[in-house]
Design a protein that fits this description.
The structure is a homodimer of 420-residue chains. By secondary structure, the first copy, chain A, is α/β, with parallel strands linked by helices. The first copy, chain A, has helices at residues 13-16, 24-34, 49-62, 80-87, 96-108, 156-174, 193-200, 232-250, 262-273, 287-292, 311-318, 322-328, 333-347, 394-413, and strands at 5-11, 38-45, 65-69, 92-94, 122-124, 128-130, 139-144, 147-152, 180-189, 210-217, 220-229, 254-257, 277-281, 302-307, 351-357, 372-379, 382-389. Chain A is built from 14 helices and 17 strands. The first copy, chain A, has a 6-stranded mixed sheet, sandwiched between helices. In chain A, strands 14-13-15-16-17 form a 5-stranded mixed sheet, sandwiched between helices. In chain A, strands 10-11-9-12 form a 4-stranded antiparallel sheet, with helices on one face.
Chain lengths: 420, 420
């Protein structure tokens, strides 16, 4: 199984014209790589018979299996099924079960049936149908010289489910894989790629069957541990060992696992402890509360937020004395502390979080250049404030400041070390 | 020139492993398509000599020109230059001018020079250097059987500039194009794709040399008009005619052109008129002020924002009577109107904007299901409020609500029709 090469062909004029950004192929590449397979090449071609045939031929020449997505809809420009059949010299047949289910679906949704939809029940001779649990277009699998060629729709939500639930199990079965694959994602913030890289090359992480990948997405990094092997118990144990070793060393920088988000983790910590929060934002402009309110049920802990862009609003809404702003500046430790304390007092909440900074591009001085940001957190135990100096553009300064503020709150709530 | 086929090859293990989402190829596809050319295929391969050679051979077989990106860095896994040279049986030479500039750059940035960097001054025999105005890795162009093969770095900011400033002009010159290409983007909100599609098929838009593409990105749509031809005056005139005809018919739905954003347009309208704004957000949770504060200089008009998630904060911060909330609900026209009026009064601003709604997944009722949103705008002329019913998930309800609110403000400021 290892060393198996898989080719990915994505089909659609919207891709070769740049109208749509293809995300299916990188999702598929990630999932196939996680299985221990290698992606030989990814190709995108338009809805064009000869381009599709050319792509299939080329990829089959360098691959042990293919994943093809797109062009399975009911309209005239969806020609993938016919093109694949044509490329392999196969006729088309109607799958009666699929046709019946399609018609039932139309009745169920109260949509009038039109004959062009019957096209979605056509498959190349010898193809095995791959169910679509999320839409009308079924996929199919053909075998060419012992190599499976799987074809699924291009709608991302459908393609993703069918890849995970249909294609990968099918590849594993056809290829006689008895391998188990387990995965664990560790979410990391405030370590650089090179610091992580250094951690990952440590000898005690070199366990056979375990690979570790890392996927930076500003401002955080995902570490993905994949454990593979035929012995299910061993696969699970290996995963746990590596996860534990990484966790032990990087615990200060790990904010969550798998589908966790920073705002979701903070929301859970607050909700679980029955604590309430008020937020005063200057440079982050509402981004902190925007993220927190993405979490369903956030009204349980978020009492209020204020975006105090003017000095008057800092005075009115938070009770920051005008004299402090005049003496130390709106962007200062003194102001940040009073903002956090003020919003906590006025909201009557357990915690108060505040940001003030210079997001640029203008407004910097020598003492406080663009990217200077103060983050303060007030609670019953007192108030802490940290000063940061970021580079990057306005948006990234906002994103990093919001992330740092949420992380400060997370650390305080989980009793962790409050990094500077 | 028309009918010219261009192949795109993107190189990097981070692409075939799915670690990084490739965006260069869709950018290139869009720009090449805008020139009136066709993308024959896009291929992604890893940093592997035989995969690169295979990709080059295949794409050259179906294309009149190639764009290759990625793998031009100084590290050992950057093997694109050597692979391209190898594929075409060419030796490598050092370009002394490039080498000197590289060394100067290192001195300028005060970084010690290491010999591996000299690799970035190596080019295949016969190659013409393509300048990199944004980084250290120069690109190059080779000719194979009259077909230009251009190679540029994979760093998106560098790839984009070099494509526009180096590759496309070079293709045009090599291929003897005397065509002029002009483009205009129209930004549209509150029309569906099928409504736009219907507009675009109108006979009076069918002008030779003019094409219109549309690129939906929730919650808005970009319309791109491209005008091409050898007569510069005619090209410009055609573009203007089509732009004018579309503008005349869709004026109510057009919020900007080219690089305009909704928040940027609103910011300009407020700043130009010297008007100030305060925002009270419930269901949008800070997203409106987050977007407005992405615009540099937003402190000129944004006095304050409040995220009034609790009923107490609606009473405290906005003066909404508790009895109104009790009688009509926090999500009601009555509350929305008082929120907009309250935040305007308390901020002492010209305009007050407010949102309240049920973003879900819980909290809906039969009378006010999930997706019910009220948006209110208060100004010297009075207060307007609109009720909307959205479907979609929590995040998209927030995004659509914020966009609708900003659009309501834009319409009010530009004297346009206030759509329901």
């Amino acid at each position: 199984m290892n060393g198996m090469n898989i080719g990915i062909l994505v089909i659609g004029n919207e891709l070769t014209s740049g109208m749509t950004q293809d995300t299916n192929s990188s999702f598929a590449a990630r999932e196939l790589t996680a299985q221990g397979w290698r992606v030989s090449a990814v190709m995108a071609v338009g809805d064009d018979i000869s381009a599709i045939k050319g792509g299939l031929d080329y990829l089959l020449g360098i691959s042990d299996a293919l994943v093809v997505t797109g062009g399975l809809g009911p309209t005239a420009d969806d020609i993938t099924t016919a093109s694949v059949a044509g490329a392999f010299g196969l006729g088309l047949y109607t799958d009666d079960t699929v046709l019946r289910r399609l018609k039932e679906r139309f009745v169920g949704f109260n949509i009038p049936w039109t004959e062009n939809n019957a096209k979605q029940a056509l498959f190349p001779g010898g193809a095995v149908v791959i169910d679509n649990p999320a839409g009308t277009a079924c996929g199919f699998c053909l075998e060419r010289g012992g190599r499976p060629v799987t074809v699924i729709p291009g709608v991302p939500a459908e393609a993703r489910r069918m890849l995970l639930e249909g294609v990968i199990p099918l590849f594993r079965e056809r290829l006689g894989s008895r391998e188990q694959v387990l995965r664990r994602t560790i979410k990391i913030f405030r370590l650089t790629e090179s610091q992580i890289d250094q951690e990952l090359t440590r000898e005690d992480l070199a366990i056979p069957g375990v690979t570790i990948g890392f996927y930076p997405r500003f401002p955080q990094i995902r570490l993905v541990i994949t454990s593979r092997g035929e012995d299910a118990a061993r696969v699970e144990e290996n995963l746990k060992i590596v996860e534990q070793r990484i966790t032990d060393r990087l615990v200060d920088y790990i904010f969550g696992y798998d589908d966790d988000t920073m705002e979701g983790v903070v929301a859970s910590l607050l909700t679980d402890r029955g604590l309430t929060l008020a937020v005063a934002e200057s440079c982050t402009g509402g981004l902190i509360t925007d993220r927190l309110t993405d979490v369903p049920g956030s009204s349980a802990f978020l009492e209020r937020g204020v975006v105090v862009y003017s000095n008057a609003s800092k005075v009115d809404l938070l009770g920051v004395p005008a004299s402090v702003i005049e003496e130390h500046g709106a962007v200062s430790e003194e102001t940040a502390v009073l903002m956090a304390e003020g919003v906590r007092r006025l909201g009557g909440t357990d915690m108060g979080l505040a940001t003030t900074g210079i997001a640029g591009p203008a407004g910097g001085t020598e003492a406080k250049p663009v990217g200077t940001v103060f983050v303060a957190l007030s609670s019953g135990g007192g108030t802490v404030c940290r000063r940061y100096q970021f580079r990057w553009d306005r948006r990234r300064i906002k994103e990093m400041s919001a992330q740092i503020a949420l992380d400060m709150l997370r650390r305080a709530l989980s009793g962790g070390d409050m990094l500077t």
